[in-house]
Amino acid sequence: MASRRFYQIAKVILQFGLDDLIPPHWIPWYARTGRHAVFWLRNRHQDKSRGERARLALESLGPVFIKFGQMLSTRRDLIPADIADELAILQDNVVPFDGKIAEQTILDSLKIKRIDDLFTDFDPVPLASASIAQVHTARLKESGDDVVIKVIRPGIKPIIESDVELLRSIAAVVQKWLPDGKRMRPVEVVEEYQKTIFDELDLVREATNGMAIKHNFAESNALFVPHFYTDYCTHDVIVIERIYGIPVSDIEALRAQGTNMKKLAERGVEVFFTQVFRDSFFHADMHPGNIFVSKETPDDPHYIGIDYGIVGTLNAEDKHYLAANFIAFFNRDYRKVAELHVDSGWVPSNTNVDDLEMAIRAVCDPIFQKPLDEISFGHVLLQLFNTARRFNMVVQPQLVLLQKTLLYIEGLGRHLYPQLDLWSTAKPFLENWMNEQIGFKALYTKVKNNAPFWAEKLPDMPDLVFNTLNQLKALPELQRQHHEALKAQQVTHQKSTLYGMLGSTGCVIGVLFVLNDLPIYYASTAFVLGAILWVKSISNIISKD
Fold it and tell me: Which of the following is catalytic: 92, 163, 236, 285?
């Protein structure tokens, strides 16, 4: 299965002429020879632009590759504009499947006979079509609410399973044979990605994720999450409140309504860091196709987020180290950054901190005091990767989603307001969060939160203290008894070992008697004594246990 899929991928790449995008001097001679050998796989789309060929190739390869294209479409600093424009179509305009199939899936999942049992004005033509699912507009018959119905693509799971299996095979080869393979931990990264993409196939999980983020931002006007109609949510179909916003990628429409672009960009950074550090639960698929801007209050704009199939979480330890790293980075305290990398175990404990500090300084210092449009974080990440490789930094699979989301946020900020100072926007938020985690304020908050529990246990405190004192009083006697029992075990073990050695010696002597043709009763006596001593040794072991 994996070999067949690998051939299919190579076939698509060659038939869409994507190998032509690689500069000739990058291709080794054996690769060029191999390309000429597969003469039957020629570029069949020479009439199309390179961007269109890249988009069509990714579409034909399925959801795993479409999602890769979605991420690339936000990185206009890394890929040419014509390719980025074409890949942006993948965000919400993937080739749809038949609306009749979608309608039948809705009937089967919601266990209804006709679509108008629950909905009116159902549109079989999808409003948007993505790699995993597509959405249709309708109106709830009971309440009259405008809704969208999200339907999973038919037969998508086997395709994803095949692609993930192929990725796992490639990752295993990379991990085994490449010099940096073990440090990069590609197998664990693929396993993390597998969990993520299979979670996205479960629309009940998406509804649960969306409701959790909606609860987290209930008191905030920065992010609006549409309502999920839980009575009509299944693994294949969910019904969601229809939103009417402006796609975040439509800069002309945003400017036409007088949107405060600077505030909108800063609010995107605020939303991201709030989800990561306050909630430890963040939307991890924030490409432009999933983000809209409300048409209300353009002077004080807020986001509308959809598609919560992929979310990320961080444990308390990773979150603390990340925040501390960010703050040290903003303050140009590269010594602290190096020490945190060692303390967290991301680099080996024997790493020379001075050397690591200087390496980080060489990469990070040049990016400060520059607006976002003059900084390529893609290139900075590449330099940091090279630095990490030199110091044997281990890839953290649990941070892969966070890294991907950071790339989306950078692409979003660059698109909305290229002059955004990402650092000065994020730094106050992170400093406030760290102040809440350490120091007197953090101590007060912890005491306040635990006070009800302590008050509940307070009446039991005298008994607990009395029992503890009694146990301490009896502790010396318990230690003495334990010491005596340990000595007795050691004596028993020594006796058992001695009996075993003597028994073996008796058997050896018996064999020597036989070999030297001595009277049989000599050998018999030696064997019997050896057997008795062995039985004695075994009985001591059994009695000890």
Answer: 285
